[in-house]
UniProtKB/TrEMBL annotation:
InterPro entries: Acid_Pase_classA_bac (IPR001011), PAP2/HPO (IPR000326), PAP2/HPO_sf (IPR036938). Residues 113-208 form the Phosphatidic acid phosphatase type 2/haloperoxidase domain. GO terms for cellular component: outer membrane-bounded periplasmic space. The keyword Metal-binding does not apply. Keywords: Signal. This is Acid phosphatase. Residues 1-19 form the signal peptide. It holds the Pfam family PAP2. It comes from the Bacteria. The keyword Signal applies. One of its GO terms (molecular function) is acid phosphatase activity.
Amino acid sequence: MKRTAWLPILLLSTSTTFAAEPSFLQRDKIDLRAVLPEPPQAGSAALKSDLAALHRIEAHRSEADAERARYDENNPTVFLFATVLGPNFTEAQLPLTAAFFKRVRDDESAFGDGAKDLFKRPRPFEVDTTLHPVCRTKDIGTSYPSGYMLRGVLYARLLSEALPEKKAAIVKRGDDFANNRLVCGSHYPSDMVGSRALALRMAELLLASPEFRAAFEPVRAEMRHALGLA
């Protein structure tokens, strides 16, 4: 298989530039190359399949779909789950939750941006100029893995741990949030594979950390109280 021009950069990269300092996990806790499969290469059947899927999504995308995707792009905090957890799930009513998930966001950004720096995958609309994205296309970095997809899966996994009664709705909302990046035209379907793998590995390590558990317990209690759960 013919290699792309950017692949040697990926293989020769020996350092990772992190945009944020993680709050809970040390950087050496996750070997990004071990966790993340390599994204499809230029000219591969897998990349053609990715692009074909985006064209199908675009062909059936309504303006309402685009509006939902843009809404999620502009509201990427844990409170996106208010749509399934109810009107009490707000930053004003959950200050501990808000502060805690800002710390989780630091971990997500550190490892997600570090992975982007390793793979440097072009956005789909840069590869196929016949695509018509409906969300931001400037200054949004590289495609793999998706920070939004990573966040949706990671937040859903952590919220499900605290609110198991709501797990099905939480997971669906997280998946919808992630899939809206495909509706936007900002990511490939295969970006979700890497994002999910990294999110689940991060959640596993976080939930195994005594420091994280200690910080999470009052947050769990706050959420359950606000939502009227025993």
